[in-house]
Amino acid sequence: MNDSTHISTDEPVLRSRHPFVETAEMFFRNHSAVVALVVLVTIVIAAIVGPFFYPTDPFEMVWAPFSPPGAEGFLLGTDYLGRDMLSGLLHGGRVSIAIGLAAALMSVFIGITVGALAGFYRGWIEEVLMRITEFFQVLPTLLFSMVLVALFGASLPMITFAIGIVSWTAVARITRAEFLRIRELEYVTASRSSGATNAKLIFSVILPNALPPIIVQAALMVGSAILFEAGLSFLGLSDPNVASWGQIIGSNRPYILDASYTVTIPGVAIFVTVLAISLVGDGLNDALNPKLRQR
Amino acid sequence: MSEVILSVKDLQVRFPLTRSMFTKRKYLYAVDGVSFELNRGETLAIVGESGSGKTTTALAIARLIKAYAGQVQLGDIDLLSLHGSELRDVRNRMQFIFQDPYSSLNPRLRAEHIVREPLDSQGRLSAQDKEQRVDELFKAVGLRPEQKRLFPHQFSGGQRQRIGIARALATQPDLIICDEPVSALDVAVQAQILNLLRKLQSEFSLTYLFISHDLGVVQHMCDYVAVMYKGKIVEYADRLSLFNNPQHSYTKELLAAVPTITL
Q1: Which chain A positions have a beta carbon within 8 Å of B167's beta carbon?
Q2: Which residue from B64, B100, B195 is facing A192, i.e. has the nearest CB?
Q3: Which of residues 130-169 of B touch A (CB under 8 A)?
């Protein structure tokens, strides 16, 4: 037998490491992203378990209005109706984050579906889907969401839908771009030539390889959805029976000069949360981008 | 005497050139009336310069791009008339070995999964049989069993090409199309891979359709050579007569263009 058909055996046996493990290692090397992740996890845990330990109803008038933070046993003071700010922050955080997540999830779902179909099938399917995407891109997003909420009522599902329906276009475009790139790669041709169905090509060959930029975009979208919800609430288009950070800012807006803390505290909460999400998204971007790897 | 595996008659592939609404649409005939036959256990090389249509011919035969006209028979199956699931069932009777060992392996799958994929798509074997088949294939292409769990980026170019070869062999295809399988590798590794391909051919009596622009490689590998130029086969001959007595002027030029070192 010919010796040259065999590999020399003196090379080291490599450990089999899952790409996921490598990505995680890369992420944890980025210090600002790790700090942001810690902050974010703290906020999310506070929003989830906080209301159990601090069950005061955020709509209940518990004390005199405009009691400043720290005074009278209320850590963050009370607002213009004498409602507990800390309770509002904890209960409202739950709602804000939940809306952010749900809206981002919805836009990722729509965006991936549209982008994957357009990028995979090309032709008239792509034409139609991308024209629809462009239609949603040129819509004035805030105005369109306001119209939807104003028409169909300010319930949480409706607000989530109104945010999700205007923010999926970026995901669709990214997904399409990745599909256009990856579908021409030889491993996709290899799968196709070994008899893979279109569904298998889309979901188990191309999509997993297209995910990194989509994950980054999705993370950033949670932040922008929280901001969007805050914007709608500030304009008064929020569920009046549910506290959220934006809704607290919106309802205390007239007293911004007399009791600025009522607006500042939920504002800082939004700011910190969205900043943390952005930094985590940025860290994910670096960790998932193979071009920055192993420098 | 020997059984004809692949028979191509008057194959044409064209691409639209202009997209104007008012002028008549023009086409580029990338493959223009190509015909040849290939027997079991033999190797036919298609050679030619870049853009001569050799890869397009291979892709059209494998039904990976659309042929405009002509006939392709694999055994007794008329390939160009198949659709949908019929086509998918036939696909595992011919397999591809690709040029670029870096983009031809899915970076998210382990080596064993990549080799097993054609068997999964076929869906005829039990999990145990597949496992066993993957072990055989790893051995056949000279990879060690403990490398099964690794990911593509942990292999060298030559090793990756071995994985690609193992994948192509998985379904025991009648025809293997090698699209410049060594041109992305360095010379020492090229020899290893070519020897491996020859060893596998004699072991499993494989049939190769070998696409290349490297006449040295072709001389080493093939029984017959088809020279393509601008979408047409300009010369078709067995290896010895082509290299010793080229007929067409383009073939002569091609042979003269092979770089040689004189000291």
Answers
A1: 190, 194
A2: B64
A3: 142-144, 146-147, 149-151, 154, 158-159, 162, 164, 167
Average pLDDT over chain A reads: 84
Q: What are the residue ranges of helices labelled H in chain B?
A: 54-61, 84-91, 111-122, 127-140, 157-169, 187-204, 215-221, 239-244, 249-256
In CATH, the number for domain B1-93+174-183+206-263 is 3.40.50.300
CB pairs under 8 A between A and B: 94
CA distance B247 to chain A (A): 35
Q: Is the dihedral of CA B55, B60, B62, B64 positive or negative?
A: positive
Dihedral sign, CA of B68, B70, B73, B77? positive
**Interval A11-33 mean pLDDT:** 74
By three-state DSSP, how is residue B7 classified? strand
For A83-121, what is each residue's pLDDT tens digit? 878 888 888 888 889 999 999 999 999 999 999 999 999
Q: Which pLDDT does position B145 carry in this prediction?
A: 87
DSSP letter at A61 equals: B
A289 and B CB contact within 8 Å: no
Using alpha carbons, list the distances in angstroms from residue A203 to A79, A108, A208. Answer: 50, 15, 7
Confidence of residue A192 (pLDDT cuts 50, 70, 90): confident
The predicted model gives A261-276 an average pLDDT of 88
Which positions in chain A touch B171 (Cβ < 8 Å)?
194
Structure tokens of A228? 């969007």
The whole-number pLDDT of residue A4 equals 46
Residue with tokens 């504002």: A267
Give me B104's structure tokens. 């031809």
Domains of chain A with CATH codes: 22-55+80-288 (1.10.3720.10)
Strand B69-74 and strand B77-78: pairing?
A: antiparallel
pLDDT in tens, B94-142: 888 998 888 899 888 888 899 998 888 877 788 888 889 999 999 989 8
Both tokens of A185, joined, read 């790669």
A146, A232 contact by CB (below 8 A): yes
Please state the rounded mean pLDDT for residues B225-250.
86
Contact B144 A7 (CB under 8 A): yes
Distance of CA B78 to the CA centre of its chain: 19
CB neighbour list of residue B217: distance below 8 Å, 6 or more residues apart: B182, B190, B194
What ipTM was predicted for this assembly?
0.86
Higher-confidence position of B258 and A247: A247
Can you tell me the mean pLDDT for A145-167? Answer: 90
> Which residues of chain B form CATH 3.40.50.300?
1-93+174-183+206-263
For the whole model, what pTM was predicted?
0.83
Contact (CB<8Å) B117/A209: no
